[in-house]
């Protein structure tokens, strides 16, 4: 049965991460709805990257991460991930086709993709305006080009949750808008919950459905307007806003 859009939900409950005696994240509770873009913001060292690592299971944590369908049944959560950057050997001969083919088929990267796989990769890349990159070497791509390729791989097949860590570095203003518009189409057409960590909260705000202000714990969450207008936001970024009570 096809579910109604926006009704599936990934819930992060009471997530805590410690390193030795240091508590990096404490009691983080967030709901991430399918078809919505949730943007996590916070000052440097707030724990944004740690949150992503914990959600990906790369960092030990306590708390629960659950996925529920519209009937409230718990299911297995599939996650797609686009990292902030990827270290690629500048001499690596691996092409975009080699990389995507290996990711989509789980074959070793040295096995050349056949005609069918080439067609499939081209189709996936075309949805992100990246089909012309198919024969380029990965190491020759710009930051923005690489992000598009990684995004195409991360959403094939469509995960329930897509996590993006600061994917805008290396992308200019125009590229940034196109990128956010692509995310908007993605969440609508594929009904994916998207979690985006961003420093550029002003640019991303018009595209965000929800915003979470993090600093060790969740200080504030709600619509972008609610969060960006909150006292917690002002305090976290030490802002003085003329015309309002800054006490
Ligand atoms: N493995 C670790 N052991 C000890 N401390 C850690 C570890 N990983 C991160 N930290 C500390 O946890 C805090 C949060 O780090 P994190 O990188 O998650 O923050 P962030 O919000 O992503 O920061 P930025 O915006 O600067 O990238 C920092 O003070 C960092 O030094």
Describe the structure.
By secondary structure, the chain is of the alpha/beta class. The chain folds into 2 domains: 1-77 and 157-246, P-loop containing nucleotide triphosphate hydrolases (Rossmann fold), CATH 3.40.50.300; 89-156, no CATH class. Helices cover 30% and strands 26% of the residues. It has 8 helices and 10 strands. The protein has helices at residues 48-55, 96-105, 115-126, 143-154, 173-190, 201-204, 224-228, 231-236; strands spanning 9-19, 22-33, 37-41, 62-68, 74-75, 79-82, 161-165, 193-197, 210-215, 217-222. Strand 7, helix 5 (173-190) and strand 8 form a beta-alpha-beta unit. Helix 2 (96-105) crosses helix 3. The longest helix is centred in the last third of the chain and has 18 residues, at 173-190. It starts with 8 loop residues before the first strand and ends in an 11-residue tail after the last helix.
